[in-house]
Batch of 4 targets.
Target 1
Amino acid sequence: MILLRGCPLSIVILLVSAVGCTMVHRDAAAPSSAQAPAPPAASAASAPAKAPTAPATTGPAAAVATTSLAGESSRPALTEDSTADDYVAFAEAANPGLQAAHFRWQAARERAPQARSLDDPKLSYTAAISKDMRIHEVTVEQMFPWFGKLDLRAAVAEEEANAARQEYEAQRVRLAYQVKQAFYEYYYLSRSIEAVRGNRDLVKYLGDVALAKYRTAGASQPDVIRAQVEFGKLDDQLRTLEDSRGAAAARLNALLARPMDTPTPWPKAVPEEKFDVPDQEILAWLHESNPELKGLDHEIVRGKQAIALAEKDYYPDIGIGIGYMNNVERMEGSEDHMVVGMISVTLPIWREKYAAGVREAQLRHEAALKMRGDRENMLAADLKMAAFGLRDATRKIALYRDTLLPKARESLQSVEAAFRTGSANFVDLVDARRTLLEFQLMYERSLVDHAVRLAEIEMLVGRPLPRKGEVLPSK
């Protein structure tokens, strides 16, 4: 007391310094948002080119600046030689839906430093003034949650961030599947247009032949009419397919975050990649790597931590404070300085409230367990269907490529020769031509279905598949 007499400002400085130290310690414990990682890059096989070097950015805008650069400057050019993986890399660089998932993940990462930090200390000032006395009091108080509460809060927030990361990964593999599906369907449209156009031109030529024969009494009028009708049907089909190109390109451009009317070249080929893995092994990959299931695993762990955190509400929080009091008695002309220590506790008396909080956490945890089981069953069923579709497409590719298409071409050539010599009628020629067109389109459809099913399996298992393949020309 003697040391403090005559220097009351020293106590105020001490208290303010204590508050400053607490704040500095809290800020040092929380990582800066500038350290947040940029969006994970595309896979090595499809990674886009590096963005130009940008001026150094610090503070909360650093992660946003990095992401913006990736979206605007590092997208590879797309040409007619670009593969589906090139299109996926292009989309991953700037798709707004994927970026939104990334920012949600980064936002979730910032909750853990907040959760593990103490509340701000409380600084209060009290003055009591009377005729004979004047009292001034300054206090600083810091509340401390019950032992383990801060760690549990941080653990809950970290699991939420981990779940958000898996949501981002799920969005990324879903985007890759959507881009590949749109790319392969765009390829199928191009092959359909080419096949229908070729058959329309063939029918026109045969119709001209029938008309020439009719003029020389070598063919009947119904043959000429059938040729004209068939030509009209094929021409209408071709116009429909050609008109649908804009809609198909718009779908692909939307996934690529480009204007709808951006010119999109026709893909040249679709890879028929060899993949022969037992269903049980693929299912094991699903359980190990599917990002949706991994995210639900983090939700389950979060639920356990949330139950433990809710149980901590039964225990009080503890407050520790220090105060300075200045007491001046005017009548006696004396002045006293005092330092006061304080301890306070909250009173957790609303037991039903805390019990309800525990029950809520337990029910949410149980819901996460059930959701995980449901999604695992549904994803496994989807994987079985995709694997069946892949096997079916593989079988049909071999069937059409090695058997049906060669036979259909041979049949058409034979009927054409017979028609020119008059030993076959025009109906036989139309049937042979129609069969070849159907087989051509079914072969292309099987190629596309095979590639789409592979992309779907990759999306479901959440990782690239171990396979080898070759790009096969269209038949």
Target 2
Amino acid sequence: MDLPSPLRRPRAWASIAYHARIRIPMTAAEPSTADSAFAARLAAAQFFLAIGWTVYVVFLPDLLGRAGIEARWILWILIADQLVFAASDVAFGFAADRMAAAYRRLGRWLLGLTLVSAAAFLALPWIAPVGPLPLLGLIGLWAVAGSVLRAPTLVLLCRRAREAQRPRHLAAYAAGMAVAGCLAPYLGIALKGADPRLPFALASIALAAAVAALVRLPETAARAGEPPRTPLPGRLLVPLLAAALLAGIGFQVHFSINAAPRFLSVAAKDQLPWLMPLFWIGFNLAMPLAQTLIRRWGALRVALVATGAAGIGAAFCAQAGTLESLGVLQVVTGGAWGLAFVALVEWVAEAGSRGREGAMLGSFFAVLALATVARMLAVALQLPGQAPWKDLLPGLPAVLFATGALVLLAMAAAGAARADRNPGP
């Protein structure tokens, strides 16, 4: 049918819709302005949290020296930090579940502990000259309070975000960490020899401001009106945690132990700070795909395929003979791990909805912290330079990723994919 020429104009239809008070509802998949604001603030909070960790690692030798602590304790203090993170993740996860129904209360609690953590972090350079006990005590306080920005932040997300938008928010959460990972080598160079007081102050203030902005956003009406659902049995989380631990150790070995020697085999040492971020660039490039893939295929299937792809990428990285091929493979492996990470977190959040997200997410992040501990212990014990580990390391990430993928495959075959209750068509 031919329309009169005025009605061919978009403005005419807009006017008709307005005067008729036609309201076209937003679908669950379409992000609102509030959704976008929440995703951006969530990414900013995780970015500044990760930047703070980088600043801490860069200046820790200097802080310990000022406190009279020998340099040989650096790695053991970092291991202790990760163990504190692991224990706090579980404890704060359970605590967040108890107050998740009161959105504003959860937000105030999260902000309060963040301010405690930021204050402790800011004070570290000032306390270091006082002595070892005050410094170590303050580091412990910072680590415990800072853990509130791991699992409880995602409980806040689960309480606020509509289910169809949750993978998008998780991708933003992961992207914030990944951007900080990209910047970490450059930050280490830029901060070398600097006075630590200014970087610690800036990192503390930025993190506190980002979290304050995050918790100010109100709970969405769409999420607030959803009826409670029964979480899946906790026993279903055990095999997924085993898969996450295997894949997490695979990531740690691939990136933190194997990547630098592999790059140095095909490139000059001064190029290394520019090459290491390639993994995180790939991680970030994959984030826009996360929501679409998870909605279409379900979180468990995406995690299974992406974990297997990370293993294949790691295997090819071990064999790459040129800088170009190694760089491309690092990007691909980073993208695969990024998708696997987001899909695993989405499965855990969905399995816990609604009522046990904190406990399940806390357990998940505790497992990832233990994977970091495993890598640090291996380095502290100098295993990478000893036989037979030296010969096994190139292929170890691929084996770990593949084993994790097999565990996920077993879960899918056993029907655990029913945790993906609302995948898209």
Target 3
Amino acid sequence: MALAPPPDLSDIAVPAPHAIALVGLMGMLLGEKLWPMGKRLVSHWLT
């Protein structure tokens, strides 16, 4: 039984260019960090 060779990953169509995907990932990471800081800041203002 012979195994098929792996597909060439450079031929896979991506929905967004790599630079746009990286910007989106960086935005998600920044949002994860900024959300708790913003909540603390707002709660400090309200108390």
Target 4
Amino acid sequence: MLRAQLNEPPPPLSRFNRSLPIGTQAVLDRALAKRPADRFATANGMIEALNIVAQHAAGSPIAQPPPRPAAPSSNVPSPVYQQPVKPTPAQVSRSVSPAPPARRLTPLPPQGQPARSSNLGLWIAFLGLLLLIAALIAYLVLAGQTNTSGASGSSATPTHNVTAQNVTPGQPTVTPAVYNGPLRPRNGPDYTGLHFDTPPVIDGKLNEWQKDSGIVVNAAINLIPGLPRSNKWGGPGDLSGISYEGWDAQNFYLAVSVTDNVHVQTSTGGDLYKGDHVELWLDTDLAGDFNSTAMDGDDYQIGLSPGDFANIHPEAYIWTNRDPALIASIKVAATARGSDYLLEAAIPWTTLNFQPAAGKALGFDIDYSDTDTPGAAVQELMLSSSPHRSYNDPTSWGNLFLK
């Protein structure tokens, strides 16, 4: 019944009462229109339309014996109801004027007394119709409210609601954001990029960062298999990391604190992966190619090296786009804390070909790579924020939300 109420027209009134005035059906159809914009704007509009129908009905021809030959003939056309309109003064005057003598069924009343209606039964039926219309309108309104509340509570794809985090003065400001696209909920914890009103200084010290918003990667489930020491990880003291993500209109910002019992980095450029470094994997069109298992033009693999804190300076490298200008656009700084290190980076959104806004989301993964053999140039161990991360497969990455 609810489906019929929302999608099918109501039954014609002639099915229930064939004596209703011409135009009554059109008024009812407009009052019960499915789209609110097609209905009467106000109750007064509907009343005016019904008054016009009633006025036309009162002056319409009534079957009677043929008029006497001496009586003047009168040809009054039957009104055709098209659309409720406010009657003009001429229409009102015409509709309430006495009918021609040849059509009068009762004698003219004495002067000063109102004429009795010859259509008492018609008016009773008309009042009943008004009550029926009011009941149908009330039912339609209630049904529409029920349908609206039901639609807002359902969704064809999973959604992620990001709640605001507490912020201290001078730290990144946080506003609520909602991403309504598809997610990869089994690929590790969701990351949140906090908005910076004032950009952080890229100096490798992490002074401007909110330290309670980071994601810790320090468990066996984060190990990437297939490397020389994948089965020989010594725990969080051997290799682990915590990262913080931020953004503003110009840049994506990253800060990491890495625990590493032996620091080794002897390589640069495209070979920096052969030493201690951090890798970022970004999908800037998360919803657009959500099910694609191969990287394309909106996916990025970026390496961030702290250097060796002696002769090799911190640097970045983009393996998916080796344009020197894009690589040079990324700012990197790092500081050593014994064998551990802190690292900061600023990656222009133009380098990623992405327009940021609060509420947007990206595919995201961060990896910590480790080489412990002094002087070696080989990748020995790696931990990933996505427990099921597969090389070059964006569907194995997690989610990053901009707030």
